[in-house]
Specification:
By secondary structure, the chain is of the alpha/beta class. Helices cover 39% and strands 21% of the residues. The chain has a five-stranded parallel β-sheet, sandwiched between helices. Strands 6-7-8-9 form a four-stranded antiparallel β-sheet, with helices on one face. The structure holds calcium ion.
Length: 231
């Protein structure tokens, strides 16, 4: 089960950047630019974590945070405040309002992802599993080890990331360009055929003899981790 995140951010480029990155990490993402929308969105579906911009038009992030903290059913939702204010006094004020963590803009996306994972590990351990497992294949994020049955699978860092990304959302089909962005990064220009080459190597590494192929090629679309490969 993937974690769901609610992003409350009125600066469009930041909202897009965050939405894109959390989606690529396998989160279910909802976004709004408006603090007033938060209570409704939260009651529609309780998010596992909220990223909350401090400076919002209308009701501020601080007020939204305070409001959520006063209600029994939303009191425990982890909140990370995003803000341009980096001063210690503001930081203290943010945390005093009930935010669980506090990130100063401009922030690094990998660092923010790491903080979100840390918070989820405390509040919701199953959403940030350290081991991904499907059928006889398991991937350990901490030790970077992949095994199939009893044998170790040797993967290059790229193939590891590719498998990790696919295994995070079993069944979901990713286009070549989505995989390029997620595994190689968004700013790198690489030919989409590179993805085919690495998928080919990954398949070769994880399959022996007549073992079923866990990676499904979806014609005209891309690739998916086949959640039923072992059936
Ligand atoms: Ca703002």
């Amino acid at each position: 089960m993937s974690a769901s995140i609610l992003i409350v951010e009125d600066e469009d480029p930041i909202q897009v950047l965050l939405g894109y990155n959390f989606e690529a990490e396998g989160f279910r993402v909802r976004c709004t630019a408006n603090g007033e929308d938060v209570p409704m969105l939260v009651s529609d579906e309780r998010p596992d974590v909220i990223l909350l911009d401090w400076m919002l038009p209308g009701i501020s992030g601080i007020e939204v945070c305070r409001l959520l903290r006063t209600k029994p059913d939303t009191r425990d939702i982890p909140i990370i405040m995003l803000t341009a204010r980096g001063e210690e006094a503001e930081r203290v004020r943010g945390l005093a309002t009930g935010a669980d963590d506090y990130v100063v803009k401009p922030f690094s996306v990998p660092e923010l992802l790491a903080r979100v994972r840390t918070i989820l590990r405390r509040s919701n351990p199953e959403t940030v599993a350290e081991t991904l497992a499907a059928g006889d294949i398991s991937l350990d994020r901490r030790t970077r080890r992949v095994t199939r049955g009893l044998r170790d699978i040797e993967l290059s860092p790229t193939e590891f990331k590719l498998l990790e990304h696919l295994m995070q959302s079993p069944g979901r089909v990713y286009s070549r360009s989505q995989l390029l962005d997620a595994v190689w990064g968004r700013d790198v220009y690489i030919d989409e055929r590179t993805v085919d080459v690495h998928v080919g190597r990954l398949r070769k590494a994880i399959r022996r003899g007549r073992e079923p192929d866990p990676i499904r090629t979806v014609r005209g679309m891309g690739y998916a981790f086949d959640e039923r490969f072992n059936l």
